[in-house]
Amino acid sequence: MVGWVALGPCRDEGSPPDCAEVWAIYVAPPSWSSGVGRRLWRRSRARLLEQGFKTVSAWVFTQNARAIKFYRAAGFAPDLSSVKEFELGGKQLQEIRYARRLE
């Protein structure tokens, strides 16, 4: 196995029932830039559409340039009002929600 995706209904408070969320997408580093992530996303998008979702979001660390590039290439756009800061392992981190329509 070189990659996997976890997704389901959006967990954000107040999100509509037709909004999905990519909870995690992982591709093993030796398979980066090989198209695995794009194929995983395309299949995930098809599944979400089959399940009746209209939009999808994903929370991304603002420091994760590779993930940001991936989501932007997949048609996601940042929600600049969604930036959250928190501490993890003694470090201050930020994450931002990226979202797109599925249709």
Description:
Helices cover 23% and strands 45% of the residues. A 5-stranded mixed β-sheet has the order 1-2-3-5-4, covered by helices on one side. It is α+β, with helices and mostly antiparallel strands and 103 residues long. The termini are far apart. It has helices spanning 36-50, 65-73, and strands spanning 3-9, 19-27, 55-61, 77-88, 91-101.
Lateral strand order in the biggest sheet: 1-2-3-5-4
How many whole angstroms does the radius of gyration measure? 14 Å
Mean pLDDT: 96
What is the terminal separation in angstroms? 29 Å
Count of extended strands: 5
- Helix and strand sequence: EEHEHEE
Largest sheet: 5 strands, mixed
Enumerate the spans where pLDDT stays under 50 for 5 or more consecutive residues.
Answer: none
Tertiary shape: globular
The helix count comes to 2
| Helix fraction bin | 10-25%
Structural class by SSE content: alpha+beta
Brief summary:
The protein is α+β, with helices and mostly antiparallel strands and 103 residues long. It is built from two helices and five strands.
List keywords for this structure.
103 residues; 5-stranded mixed beta sheet; 5 strands; 23% helix; 45% strand
Q: Topology, please?
A:
Elements: E1 3-9, E2 19-27, H1 36-50, E3 55-61, H2 65-73, E4 77-88, E5 91-101
Parallel strand pairs: 2-3
Antiparallel strand pairs: 1-2, 3-5, 4-5
